[in-house]
Specification:
The protein is an alpha+beta fold. It contains 4 helices and 8 strands; from the N terminus they run ααββββββββαα.
């Protein structure tokens, strides 16, 4: 029989997954709609743009943005700033962060010539403000070329490792930091963890938070 605390935790996990999946679907749909409206393939998106330009061109038309954060303190207070999964270290605040109409925070950061990173705080400034709990990362790549792998263009849950390879090229054990070979895994105990891979784990598990997820 489930106790009250167990029921509360179960509800929060379900709520987290629902919000995370909603954001991923909306962001992915924004790119699909842009392709259809402008008769352009995702591999031809202009990734020479900076964060502001990319946001305005490809994302803003599908999202209602109610605020542009001037800096970290403009969105988070000092005590509630986002921390990584080990509950100790502050996460990196993306300089381009906006508040969406549903209260979510969306951050965008350019990572190399053809890639962008996104983070989302699914409940805005509200606690717990922890990566892997209410803050998650997504990875976008376009016009990607690699000597070793054929990288499919598009949006991925989670971050990247190695030479900007998205999460699909790594095992679940690597994403959770159980086995080696993945940087920034979804783990409380791994020394290299910043929990960047947590969204990838949830998606890989069929959009659910499994029992071994580091909640």
């Amino acid at each position: 029989m489930l106790t009250i605390p167990s029921l509360v935790t179960s509800y929060r996990k379900q709520e987290t997954v629902a919000s995370l999946k909603k954001f991923y679907s909306r962001l992915n749909q924004a790119f699909i709609l842009y392709e259809a409206k402008n008769n352009i393939a995702i591999q031809d998106f202009n990734t020479n743009l900076d964060e502001n330009e990319f946001l305005d061109e490809y994302i803003a038309p599908s999202f209602k943005i109610i605020k542009h954060c001037k800096d970290r303190e403009d969105c988070y207070d000092a005590e509630n700033f986002v921390k990584v999964l080990d509950r100790k270290t502050h996460a990196y605040f993306y300089p381009k962060t906006v508040v969406l109409s549903d209260g979510m925070f969306l951050g965008i950061r350019k990572m190399g010539e053809n890639t962008f990173m996104f983070n989302v705080d699914i409940n805005g400034a509200k606690k717990p403000n922890l990566t892997g709990r209410d803050v998650f990362y997504f990875f976008f790549t376009s016009n990607y070329s690699s000597i070793n792998k054929d990288i499919k263009r598009g949006l991925y849950a989670g971050n990247f490792s190695g030479l900007y390879y998205p999460h699909i090229y790594y095992s679940r054990e690597q994403l959770l930091g159980i086995s080696s070979g993945y940087e920034r895994p979804c783990s409380k105990s791994n020394d290299n963890s910043t929990s960047d891979a947590c969204a990838a784990v949830i998606m890989l598990d069929g959009w659910k938070i499994s029992n071994d997820y580091p909640w």
